[in-house]
Write a structure and sequence with these properties.
With about 150 residues, the chain is of the alpha+beta class. The chain has one domain (about 25-140): 2-Layer Sandwich (Alpha-Beta Plaits), CATH 3.30.70.100. The protein is built from 5 helices and 4 strands; from the N terminus they run αβαββααβα. β2 (about 75-85) and β3 (about 95-105) form a beta hairpin. Strands 2-3-1-4 form a 4-stranded antiparallel β-sheet.
Length: about 150
């Protein structure tokens, strides 16, 4: 059995706050998403559609619900692309979708993620995903050429 990652642990949340602080400027989240063939709503049967849907369709429901909430908290999707197999990486691993989401700062991210309507929408995300990765990033200024010369 392989390890799957759908939601963060409390330890990971605390490490995120320690790493970025709550007002440290823009934060970007690299999302790698692998969908289930068929969505699994066993954790939230009240949200399950009458007719079975794919993981990608369940994720589309999540996106439709969270997009306005993301915008309200200063966030935006800055890249949305199709994934695939790695060029450099494990041959057996692949990702269906890749997103980069920008938030004003970590406070805005937590404001977005802790809203009851975002938490409710998150059940569609859980139903949709077989696995995921979420890498928080900040921009770094480019190195000057003189600094990189031997």
């Amino acid at each position: 059995m392989t390890d799957t990652h759908i939601t963060p642990s409390q330890t990971q949340g605390a490490a995120l706050v320690r790493r970025f602080g709550m007002t440290g400027g823009p934060i970007f989240m690299l999302n790698l998403l692998r969908f289930r063939d068929m969505a699994d709503y066993s954790h939230a049967p009240d949200l399950a559609p009458v007719k079975a849907i794919t993981g990608a369709e369940a994720y589309a429901r999540y996106e439709a619900a969270i997009s306005p909430l993301l915008a309200e908290t200063g966030g935006a999707i800055v890249f949305d692309g199709l994934g695939g197999d790695w060029f450099i990486g494990p041959e057996a691993a692949h990702w269906h979708r890749v997103l980069i989401v920008r938030q004003t700062d970590l406070t805005s991210f937590f404001s977005f993620a802790s809203r009851p309507d975002a938490i409710l929408a998150g059940h569609h995300r859980t139903a949709a995903l077989a696995d995921s990765r979420l890498l928080p990033m900040t921009a770094q200024p480019p190195l000057a050429l003189a600094e990189t010369a031997p």
